[in-house]
Amino acid sequence: MINGSRLLKHLHDLSQIGRNEVTGGINRFSFTPEEKQAIELITMYMEKAGMTVTVDAVGNIIGTYGEGRETIMLGSHIDTVPEGGKYDGALGVLAAIEVVQTIHEQQLSPAKKIEIVAFKDEEGTRFRFGLIGSRAMAGLLTQEQLLQTDASGISIEEAMKQFQLSPFPLEKVKRNDIQAYLEMHIEQGKVLENEGLPVGVVTGIAAPLWLEVTVTGVSEHAGATPMLIRQDALTAASEMILAIEHLLNDTTDSVATVGKLNVEPNGINVIPGKVTFTVDIRDIDEQKISNLENTIFKKIQKIAERRNVTLTSKVLQRVKPAKTDPMIQQQLINSIEKHGVQSYSLISGAGHDAMNIAAVAPIGMLFVRSKDGISHNPLEFSTDEDIILATNILYDSVVELAN
Ligand code: GLV
Ligand code: MN
Ligand code: MN
Question: Which of 64, 275, 302, 324 is the most exposed place for a label (fewest CB within 10 A)?
Answer without folding.
Answer: 302
